[in-house]
Amino acid sequence: ILDEQPGNVSGGHGDTSSGRPAAAAPSSSAPLLNRLSNFYSGSSVYLGLAWKEAITQTTFTAAKTFLLERKGLPPSASLTPAWLSFLVAAACNSIARTLTYPLFAALVTIKTGKARAGQGVLATVATLYGEHGLSGMYAGCLPELLRGVCFQGIVMSLVEALSARAAAAAD
């Protein structure tokens, strides 16, 4: 029988090597809720990192709509030429990565064991800022920024080129 605390194992009925009572029977809903809350305990970090993609797509859509309206085209049109969609996507990804990089840095700090024990993501960001200033929060950002800019630029220019071909084929 596993005790609710990680690492504490009891040998059986009433026998506890940790000095505490054995875990409740599986029919109780409390252990299930504890297991579910532990399963989702780190999800807020990844949800925060998902904001990067949401910011990238939102800013790309807004910039694309603005540029297409200036050309007198409907917002559903494709952003061509390909180099223009590459530049717009790269700029939008740069904005998103710059805004969310402190969360990424905190996640890496926690995963590598360099954060204080039991410290959460926001506390780790605050510690990075307090100990190293802005440079600590953005240490290692440049390679990540370059990778993301290239990747997002290529992907969005391909998406726009394919949607332009699909629209031309539909006409």
Please, could you describe this protein's structure?
This protein is an all-alpha fold. The protein has helices at residues 29-39, 43-70, 82-111, 121-137, 141-170.
Residue stretches low in confidence (pLDDT < 50, at least 5 long) are: 1-21
Largest sheet: none
Oligomer description: single chain
Order of helices and strands: HHHHH
Tell me what portion of residues adopts beta-strand conformation: under 5%
Rg for CA atoms: 24 Å
Number of beta-strand segments = 0
Estimated helix fraction: 55-70%
Number of helices: 5
Please state the average pLDDT score.
77
Nutshell version of this structure?
The chain is an all-alpha fold and 171 residues long. Helices cover 68% and strands 0% of the residues. The N and C termini lie far apart (67 Å).
Topology:
Layout: H1 29-39, H2 43-70, H3 82-111, H4 121-137, H5 141-170
Helix pairs in contact: 2-3, 3-4, 3-5
What labels describe this entry?
171 residues; disordered N terminus
